[in-house]
Design brief:
With 431 residues, the chain is of the alpha/beta class. The protein is built from 20 helices and 13 strands. The longest helix is centred in the middle third of the chain and has 24 residues, at 176-199. The two termini are 35 Å apart.
Length: 431
């Protein structure tokens, strides 16, 4: 584990200053990635704190959710509806390299923190505007969250889950659109910094939850007429069932949603064992032969040239063969299966909970966790930076900030006097 502390920044972005107007997950995660790279991230929060700070609090104003997305930042509390607070932003911007914002397109202009206004104060400003749906089109001004992006983009349907009431099951393991967009934000910022280094130009960058969610499905979203006859037939059936008022589960079955085949599959899936579960991944003929040797079985499943997933007889026979393999896996423990599969050269791993993965020797050996000390709650361990760099190592620059901890510090850095700070606080512009 590695320790980080504000004031001793390290990484490839040391000297870069980021002004963050974001909340919940996507924007904060993107800016945390920039902080891990050494950037000075000033997070602007409303007087009550951003919503994730207040969600499932373990003490007033602090939550694990907020901690996990905001380490290494400085907290500046501004009531952006107050002209005095807007003036603080305008005095800060000439000293800022990157602005990241995730308000609806109309909100930034109302608060006088839109790209046109801020880039006039710093012409080479990099301004990253994250929205749910993009800035154009009929949904441009709609709010949106990960669950809605899952639904609209096809991610939710692709997961192929249906709850007991027949409704689509959400992807609960991780807010994929949010976290993916956070990575896109950090990636865009670094690319824009490189462009500015070469040309001196800043720019306006757009990211969105919808674009990220679609990008995650590129192989399925691609339309290729020469190869997609089955897809067109499938979608025709979907349209027909919807027109007939068929239940969602029937429509989902007709679509055959899910990237991993669910019939005749023993090569790329997880199996229950005697004491847990193990996952197997074999995407080449050579690896599939190793799976058959390890189990052992002669079953080819969906890789049998004669197999037709639309033929009820084939499906019935496949279910019987798959059940035999599943029963075999339940005869041994996870450790026993891992030893056997690894001996045969099969890619495999245990099905862990994240609490177990954080303590796994592989995780620890690669320093994928970071130990921090929060000023209110003491020690904590988080998932560390996303990547390793030999010349400019990334590091958590410190824990998440207490609400408003750095307000006075930031204001003094752009020339506010103590008397001016007192006046701003008295009028409610800062807190």
């Amino acid at each position: 584990m590695a320790d980080g502390a504000l004031g001793g920044a390290s990484g490839p972005l040391v000297g870069i200053r980021v002004l963050e107007f974001t909340q919940i997950i996507a924007g904060p995660f993107g800016c945390q990635n920039l902080s891990d790279m050494g950037a000075d991230v000033i997070k602007v929060e409303p007087p009550e704190g951003e919503p994730w700070r207040l969600y499932s609090q373990y003490m007033p104003g602090e939550s694990k959710y907020y901690h996990s997305l905001n380490r290494g930042k400085r907290s500046l509390v501004l009531n952006l509806e107050d002209p005095g607070a807007q003036e603080v932003v305008h005095r800060l911007v000439p000293e800022v390299d990157i602005v990241v914002i995730n308000y609806r397109p109309d909100v930034a202009e109302k608060l006088c923190i839109d790209y046109a206004r801020l880039s006039a104060l710093r012409p080479n400003l990099i301004y990253i505007d994250n929205t749910a749906w993009g800035r154009k089109g009929p949904w441009s001004h709609r709010p949106g969250y990960d669950i809605i992006a899952q639904a609209v983009s096809g991610l939710m349907a692709a997961d192929g889950k249906v709850d007991e009431g027949g409704a689509p099951g959400t992807i609960t393991a991780s807010p994929m659109a949010d976290y993916g967009t956070g990575i896109a934000i950090a990636w865009a910022a670094c690319a824009a910094l490189y462009h500015r280094e070469r040309t001196g130009q800043g720019q306006f960058i757009e990211t969105s939850l919808l674009n990220t969610a679609l990008a995650f499905q590129g192989q399925y979203g691609t339309d290729l007429p020469a190869a997609d006859a089955l897809k067109y037939d499938k979608m025709a059936m979907v349209d027909q069932l919807r027109a007939e008022g068929a239940p969602y589960e029937a429509v989902l079955d007709a679509h055959g949603a899910g990237g991993i085949p669910r019939v005749g599959n023993v090569y790329y899936r997880a199996f229950a064992t005697k004491d847990g579960a193990v996952a197997v991944g074999a995407l080449s003929p050579t690896l599939r032969a190793k799976v058959r040797a390890a189990i052992p079985t002669e079953y080819l499943g969906l890789y049998d040239p004669e197999f037709d997933a639309r033929n009820p007889e084939h499906v019935a026979a496949a279910n019987i063969e798959v059940a035999k393999v599943e029963a075999r896996f339940r005869e041994l423990t996870t450790a026993e299966w891992l030893e056997r599969l690894e001996r045969h050269g099969v890619p495999c791993g245990p099905v862990n909970f994240v609490e177990e993965a954080m303590l796994d020797p592989q995780t620890l050996a690669n320093e994928m966790t970071v130990a921090l000390e929060h000023e209110l709650s003491g020690p904590e361990t988080q998932v560390g930076p996303l990547l390793r760099m030999s010349a400019t190592p990334l590091a958590a620059q410190g824990p998440s900030p207490v609400l408003g901890r750095h307000t006075d510090e930031v204001l003094r850095s752009v020339g506010y006097s103590e008397a001016e700070i007192v006046t701003l606080r008295e009028r409610g512009a800062i807190a």
